[in-house]
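Kindly inspect this one:
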Amino acid sequence: MPIYEYVCKTCGNEFEALVRGEERPECPSCGATQNLERQMSVPSAHTLAVQTPSACPASQSCGMPNCCGQGCGLGGLG
């Protein structure tokens, strides 16, 4: 049961939705089901506690400024 990230083109809301089988997600803000665009997600990586920014599992691929706990939130994984 994957969790996908979406942007609603009707109202601009960004949200995550657990999608099972053939279910269609619904925007929690406006209720739209047709104008949703699935976004690319950063893969999750479970590692030991991150000690330095260079040890971040996504430091080379996330593309976020201030990577490793200061912007993308992956630095606290452990």
Notes: The two ends are 23 Å apart (CA to CA). The mean pLDDT is 75. The chain is about 0% helix and 20% strand.
